[in-house]
Amino acid sequence: MSHSEDESMSAAGDDQTQLAKQLGDLKQTDPDFYEFLQEHDSQLLDFKESSENDEDDGDDEAAEDSGEDEPMEVDALPTKEAFKKSEVSESTFTLSLSTVNKWRKRCDSSSPTFPFIIKVMRGFVYVVKQLKSGCLDTDVVDAVTQLCFTQLKPALDSLLGVKKAKKKRIPLIDVPSFGKVSDLLKKYLKGCVSTLNEFTDTERVCAIYKHLISMVEYVNTNTNVTRTSFKTAIGMWSESESEKIRVLAFIFLEKMVRLDADLYLKPTLQKMLSAYEKNTKFTTSSTLVLIGFMQHSLVQLLSIDMSVSYMLTFNAIKAAAITLRNALTNKKKEFSSQVYCWQFIHNLYLWATVLSSCCTSENEALKPLIYPLTEVIVGTIKLLPVARYYPARFHCVRILILLSKFTKVYIPIFAHITEVLLNMDFHTKLKKSIKPFNLKVSLRFSDSDMKEEAFQSSVIDSVYDLLLECFATFSHNIGSPELFVLPYLHIRKFVKSCKVSAYTQKMKQLLDKVEQNTRFIVDARANVEFGVMDFKAIYKWESEIENNKKLPLKAFHSKWLKTKSEIKPDATKVPAKEDFTNKKRLNEANKNPKKKKKFNRQKAVKKLSSKLKNHKSKSKLFKVKKRSFKSKHK
Description:
This protein is an all-alpha fold. It has 30 helices and no strands. The model is unreliable at 1-5, 7-13, 47-91, 576-596 and 616-634 (pLDDT under 50).
């Protein structure tokens, strides 16, 4: 035997003596754990090799038949070192419905212990690994998942003392007994996250997310698990077809971000914003709901930390201003198409909702960004002020109304609406169309769309809606009688010049409501005692007028919204280049194909006679040609 082999043997002997001393001390320091080792792994105490696996399997089967709560062959030890040494290969592991039922009975009968919780978690890890092969029965999978999702969280909280430390909020990593389950808990949580992509059933995915939402503090203990969970949750939030899954994924993201906003908020928002831009490339009536949900969820996360939201909002407005400047300086279609696209418009909607929700009287950190965003929106309107891009103009006007309504900042909006009435010609006769256009899912009109009557009617309807909304927004303002003078004159000029009664009736009704509202405000402010510079008294007076239900424009606007909501969405159509849902026309075209045109003899004779005018023998040749032409088309 060589000298190196002697050293290795002596080192092994030293390790054995140290281990013996540690196990001897364990009997005094942790007697419960020492009894657990004597019952379940006495070979570790006797320093013998575990070469009797077949006998242990037979003992386990006898224990299952007898109904006693004996450990299975996959028992895990509650410490990291013992867990690594006693880990059994998964090829010999089997799981049946009877064992899961025994676990459930034990949870109901007695209080949980660390060995039992480790056993249940290892059973779930085994189920997750067997899901890809499809060898397990669905009843076993459902039983294990239901047991873990209902019993594991309260058992871990009671054993680790989380409930007692709720007021102090001690991190789980600092809890001394957390090291007993940290390694296996990591595998368990990884299995939960991986099953989100394996299951296609919405109920199972929702159950997993509900469990992960309750386990956010445990997910936060491991960086790898948090990274994968954030990635899958953002994917589910932006791409899932189920509304329940999207909502639960966002709740999980919000819970995780609020645990440590300094670490998670900024990178999470950056990834969510990139996913938002991908989903806003194409907009239809079906995708508008998803885009609206994404906007509100981003606003909710941006309201957590104003410093982070200010930086992201400033960078987004700066990027939008740069693209707008490029389109103004380089008057080409490539640059203007970058402005008049859904990504640009939806970004304006997003940051307008952020400013309108975060800019309050208590928090004015984002208020300096209202002016640059307003300038970008106005520049977008003035980039191509033609009738083809009226839908994009109407979207920008809605964004301005949203900003002015919730931030309590006056923005001149009426001029951008009345300009359409004064510049557009409504007297030209166009083709009749079956349905009006739905301008909410369009940014431009095509050449064929501008030749239909639906073009004029849709423009008038949207102008009326925007004027009514804008009048209702400023109806409670103490200076509204003077503010409404110029738009009132523009609408009155349109009513006098336009001869289409269907268009003028709506505008006349709107003028009557404006007159009633001005009389109401003039009568209300006649008895006011405060001065012009007393802003607190003015704000108080305006709030009282705003809450008054007798305000004419407010009452009329609320009634109009109710009647508008009762209109069915199928009563409108999308412009020609974005009509993805008009299936009736395709079906009718397939049922009734176009017939070939019949031969018109008179037209053919006229063409031949024009060619033979200068010929000398006109009559003879004409007869011959006429007969020959007729014989061809019999």
